[in-house]
Design goal:
With 477 residues, this protein is mostly beta strands. The protein has 4 domains: 17-91 and 167-194; 99-154, SH3 type barrels; 217-293, no CATH class; 304-327 and 384-477, Immunoglobulin-like, CATH 2.60.40. It is built from 3 helices and 34 strands. The longest helix is centred in the N-terminal third of the chain and has 10 residues, at 2-11.
């Protein structure tokens, strides 16, 4: 008898605590506050405060309107009313309800197939069992097996593990004494990390003769699968260390564009910088939104024409080292002053200049890294059209050792002819990298050391004229 009772007990289906507790749902309609903090690198922190009715003891709460890319291991539920919450179980349901999923979940179940008679147009129903729903549907009728979908399929219900939207369901105990039937409102905060939210900075600069006007924008992209209405928005600039893990693929979709005129306030946060939008905003799902970051006028700027040389040709014999070289055009300004002087997040700076008719024309762009206060920003806009150079090796001697052995001493001479077709004088910066132990023996202009392995010459070139820079170097390697 004891063995029979034990066998009967084992044969009974297990009823979990989660199944025994009635599920209550909460959606964005219950939100009391929402905060979104977006980091560099496809990471965001969501803090969602809702007013939810709970009873005493165990509660099963389905928290809807969460990110489809929520990282469930980071979820934290807490009471803002001082109640104790003991989490027993949580499930993140992202297997969403679709006709295909409904068929797959109904394999082995009985469904009704609704058909229409071709002659009379009258609908009739047959019962069938779903045998398979992988590459197609296989149905068993009373007298036959059919493939494909022969008509409308009517299901008896929706499986409990299929949700119409991503949902975090949580089973927990509360210390409240209110019975479930009555319920009382609790202020609950759910915080979690998610991917699918990103931001980047973009800057637009308008160049005048010796200054620029700079406007910064933050571009936000929401691919997380849900909307964040009336949220407090904060952005973190800096490299936050993260443990790498496998991620599910995120499909790219079309995005809507929204422009919001607002200003962001900046503050230090640990070793990063935090930018806070001065009002709440809505981040719609599958949307790109832009908000203003900064606006600064009359920032002093310097333009530089720069020719950069390598060090390999100081160790070998060569002839022409580059005909029709074109110097890079660089703009440099300091991140300081009353109109600027805030940490600049990494982003792309696009530069415009007005033509003779007053129309703004695009003249180049460059990417900047995170730039603290007081640091300089250098932008490479392109290559000069009216300034060219020819560079050649005029002499090469081996004074000691072999070319490919250590301890050799080499001496070589160089010449660079720089031409200026502009109707104004220019100064061209020539930078040369020198290998090993080096010594400049002769030079037509005095150089300035930049580092242990490079020197720079500032070469003035007259309008519609040319200047020849010549130098001789001894290298021990």
């Amino acid at each position: 008898m004891k063995l029979l009772a034990l066998a009967a007990f084992i044969a009974l289906p297990a009823i979990s605590t989660a199944q025994a507790v009635e599920e209550h749902r909460t959606s964005s309609a219950d939100q009391a506050a929402l905060a979104v903090t977006i980091y560099n690198g496809d990471l965001a922190l969501i803090k969602d405060v809702r007013r939810v009715k709970l009873g005493g003891g165990e509660n099963m709460l389905a928290w809807r309107d969460v990110s489809a890319h929520l990282q469930p291991e980071t979820a934290l539920l807490r009471s803002l009313d001082g109640h104790k919450l003991a989490l027993l179980e949580q499930n993140f349901d992202f297997d969403l309800l679709t006709p295909k999923k409904l068929l797959e979940k109904s394999v082995g179940d009985t469904v009704r197939v609704i058909r229409t008679q071709a002659v009379t147009g009258v609908e009739y129903a047959e019962q069938a069992s779903v045998l398979a729903a992988n590459d197609g549907v296989v149905l068993r009728f009373a007298d036959r097996v059919e493939t494909g979908i022969p008509g409308r399929i009517v299901f008896s219900g929706v499986p409990a593990d299929l949700r119409d939207q991503p949902t975090l369901s949580m089973l927990f105990k509360t210390d409240a004494t209110v019975p479930h039937q009555a319920g009382t409102e609790h202020a609950l905060e759910l915080s979690y990390l998610t991917s699918g939210l990103s931001w980047k900075a973009d800057y637009v600069a308008e160049l005048s003769e010796d200054s620029i006007d700079l406007n910064g924008w933050v571009t936000l992209t929401n691919d997380s699968g849900t909307t964040y209405p009336n949220a407090r928005l904060q952005l973190v600039a800096g490299e936050v260390n993260r443990v790498q893990a496998e991620r599910r693929a995120v499909p790219m979709m079309m995005k809507a564009m929204a422009n919001v005129a607002a200003q962001m306030q900046e503050e230090n946060l640990f070793e990063y910088h935090l930018y806070t939008l001065d009002r709440n905003t809505t981040l719609g799902n599958q949307q790109t939104k832009q908000v203003a970051l900064l606006s600064a006028q009359k920032i002093p700027v310097e333009k530089e024409y720069r020719l950069q040389g390598g060090d390999a040709y100081y160790l070998t014999q060569a002839g022409d080292l580059g005909r029709k070289l074109k110097p890079e055009v660089l703009l440099e300004f300091a991140n300081q002053g009353d109109s600027l002087g805030m940490p600049l997040p990494r982003g792309v700076v696009r530069v415009y200049k007005r033509d003779a008719a007053g129309r703004a024309q695009f003249i180049g762009e460059d990417r900047i890294d995170h730039t603290p206060r007081g640091e300089s920003v250098r932008l490479k806009l392109g290559e000069a059209f009216d300034i060219t150079a020819d560079k050649s090796q005029t002499d090469f001697q081996k004074l000691a050792g072999a070319y490919n052995n250590r301890g050799g001493v080499l001496e070589s001479g160089y010449q660079m002819k720089i031409r200026n077709a502009k109707r104004e004088n220019v100064v061209v910066t020539v930078v040369e990298n020198l290998p090993g132990e080096w010594q400049i023996l002769q030079e037509s202009l005095a150089h300035k050391p930049v580092s242990a392995g490079s020197v720079v010459w500032k070469v003035p070139v007259p309008a519609e004229g040319k200047t020849v820079l010549a130098w001789r170097v001894r290298v021990k390697y």
